Amino acid sequence: YLPHPQDAGETTEEMEAAKPRNCGAKLCFLCNQRKPALKRPKTLQQICRECFYTVFEEEIHSCIIENQLFKPGERVAIGASGGKDSTVLAYVLSELNRRHNYGLDLFLLSIDEGITGYRDDSLETVKRNEIQYGLPLKVVSYKDLYGWTMDEIVKMIGLKNNCTFCGVFRRQALDRGAAMLKVDKLVTGHNADDISETVLLNILRGDIARPSAILDIIKSGERFRIATSTKMPEQGICERCGYISSQKWCKACVLLDGLNRGLPKLGIGRSRVHDNDDCKKEANHMTGSKEVQGKPCGNLDF
Ligand SMILES: Nc1ncnc2c1ncn2[C@@H]1O[C@H](COP(=O)(O)OP(=O)(O)OP(=O)(O)O)[C@@H](O)[C@H]1O
């Protein structure tokens, strides 16, 4: 972090005198030397490229230290999709690990959903990151885990609702990949936009309980406490695959069973299941619940 001159105890006159003359053009708010390259939405400060890199990396470091996110010797997998967010995450975490001696064993973990022309391209980026940052890469595919690629699923179910399969399978595939790598933690590049999107989608769907719970957690921030009187839900295990589940069968198994039996809409939205009484009975039997609720769309389930 480069302190603002005022933080360093300089008077306004000293700061004015020290300012390089630049014919009235504004200079970076932090270093007062270079031309600003951007206005940070977070602070509204106009800062240069170099200062942005510095404050961005140091803020992440402070967040890691203040919240004690890692312990020395831990194995950490980085969910690497090859997109911008996880690529930045891979770079920053490996850089901070080296710079500040966190002592972490880092890995890249990529899920290959089997989407031709999309994931195969981004996996090439991840393979470049593997070499660039010297991080071992593990690729786990839907085909290997579930016997289906997303291309095959789309062929069967069509373009509508396939996000449910993709999101549920990806979430579980990341967990399974993490277990294969025997890591202690898995980090992802979810950003504030992703979280806002999830909250807004829930509100638009009329699911008020979940967004308000998320907003409460965000608001209470660091003061978040669980009341001693609160009974925590018991974490069960899927009877079919052994993955964590609060139902008899986990969501991935319900969807997979539907696919394998040629009833791909089995585990999707409530209304579809209601359309067909046999499907409803089947689905309720598998989930052990009275209602089957599907998440129509989304990236990773929060
Ligand atoms: N196929 C994948 N393999 C591994 N990790 C993934 C995969 N897809 C998503 N993730 C993880 O989940 C995060 C959020 O995914 P999302 O699909 O919202 O993409 P995004 O916000 O565009 O991020 P990115 O730019 O990294 O793709 C990613 O940053 C990454 O850490």
TrEMBL record:
Keywords: ATP-binding, Nucleotide-binding, Transferase. GO terms for biological process: tRNA wobble position uridine thiolation. Pfam families: ATP_bind_3, zn-ribbon_14. GO terms for cellular component: cytosolic tRNA wobble base thiouridylase complex; mitochondrion. GO terms for molecular function: ATP binding; transferase activity; tRNA binding. Residues 237-266 form the Cytoplasmic tRNA 2-thiolation protein 1 C-terminal domain. Residues 76-209 form the tRNA(Ile)-lysidine/2-thiocytidine synthase N-terminal domain. Gene3D superfamilies: HUPs. This is Cytoplasmic tRNA 2-thiolation protein 1. It comes from Chenopodium quinoa.
